[in-house]
Write a structure and sequence with these properties.
Elements (H helix, E strand, L loop, with lengths): L4 E5 L4 E6 L2 H12 L4 H12 L1 H67 L4 E5 L1 H12 L8 E6 L7 H7 L3 H7 L2 E6 L5 E5 L7 E5 L16 E7 L3 E7 L4 E8 L10 H32 L5 E8 L1 H4 L8 E4 L6 H12 L2 E5 L1
Parallel strand pairs: 8-11, 11-12
Antiparallel strand pairs: 1-2, 3-13, 4-5, 4-7, 5-6, 6-13, 8-9, 9-10
Length: about 350
């Protein structure tokens, strides 16, 4: 309040015409504090300097701060309770999940024990002549109307409900043999699965007799099957008319054997070996593709590629059928074993 003059009358001291500068203000405060009316004078000074509003605001803020602290404390308490409840809920969930896992394991073991308890009554492997004889016998069976079921089933979902009811729990055995041909009579005396080299498209039906065809187990004599054997070091190609194997190509590629060294040397060795196998497979594909192109399609019954499972996918665009076989030895001998194994019919009595 520079330039303004104030006069305060004090009981013990009078200060008149005091300029309210910094020095004068200090003298005024000293005089006021020594007076018995200091409280009143201080209030007047607070109003004079605008401190009264500031003090009131400070009191409001302190009160607000007190309420905020109480709210924070209450919120922290609620959070603590919420954390405790969440931890309790998580513990309950973990206990329930453990119990569910235990129950699932128990069910799995029960199912496994039931499945293991079931076994095929008999399993036979028939080569061409015996397989043809079996088909003739089955086709000669006569049953009442709709008493004989014949069907080609490729997957579990395709098993008819009527067949499930007929087989009951032994349907689990059938599922192990899929895809396969199934023959069942209404009495349950005949209940067979046949895994054939040339499975037909899916079909199913009940009739007075079974409906099996020999062409599912061998190529027709008027046409030939083209059969290729593929291993990482062997490629063999032949035609087969059901009786004679006519060799077209026998190739054995020298593939570097694996060694026990590790590190960079091992990695480099494996890359070299993989490249050799890749070159061998490319050559085999080229040979098969060329032979198929040069052969009259009217003479081809089917194209079959047999061999190592990891290599078969490289021929899926050329083959009608692919199957894993364990044919070892020299190319010619391995090819004969592969053809024999492929044209062997596995018959399982359910």
């Amino acid at each position: 309040v520079t330039g303004t003059t104030r006069v305060f009358k004090c009981e013990f001291q009078q200060i008149a015409n005091v300029g309210v500068g910094s020095r004068g203000l200090c003298l005024l405060l000293i005089s006021v504090r020594s007076s018995r009316h200091s409280v009143g004078y201080l209030c007047m000074i607070d109003e004079l300097l605008g401190r009264a509003e500031l003090k009131a605001r400070i009191e409001e803020l302190e009160e607000e701060n007190h309420h905020l602290k109480r709210r924070v404390e209450a919120e922290e308490e609620r959070r603590s309770e919420a954390v405790s409840e969440r931890q309790s809920a998580e513990a309950t969930i973990n206990q329930l999940e453990d119990k569910i896992t235990q129950l699932e394991d128990a069910v799995s073991r029960a199912r496994g024990s039931d499945s293991e308890a079931l076994s095929f009554r008999e399993v036979h492997r028939y080569r061409q002549a015996k397989a043809e004889s079996l088909i003739e016998r089955l086709n000669s069976y006569h049953a009442p109307p709709d008493g004989a079921y014949t069907g080609m089933i490729h997957d579990t979902d395709a098993i008819p409900d009527a067949l499930r009811e007929q087989l009951d729990d032994r349907v689990a055995l059938l599922q192990r043999r899929l895809p396969c041909i199934v023959v069942v009579d209404d009495t349950g005396i005949i209940s067979l699965s046949l895994e054939v080299p040339h499975p037909p498209n899916a079909f199913a039906g009940w009739d007075e007799s079974f409906s099996l065809q020999k062409r599912w187990i061998q190529p027709t004599h008027r046409r030939q099957s083209i059969i290729a054997l593929v291993r990482s070091d062997v490629f063999a190609l032949c035609t087969y008319d059901g009786e004679t194997i006519d060799t077209v190509d026998l190739t054995q590629t020298a593939i570097t054997e694996q060694h026990s060294k590790g590190g960079f040397s091992q990695s480099r060795f494996e890359r070299r070996r993989d490249q050799q196998i890749e070159t061998h497979i490319d050559s085999a594909r080229s040979t098969l593709k060329t032979f198929l192109t040069e052969t009259d399609t009217e003479l081809i019954d089917t194209v079959v590629v047999l061999g190592e499972q990891t290599l078969l996918s490289d021929f899926d665009d050329l083959a009608d059928h692919m199957e894993t076989v364990d044919a070892r030895g020299e190319p010619e001998k391995a090819l004969q074993e592969a053809v024999t194994e492929f044209y062997t019919v596995r018959v399982s009595i359910l």
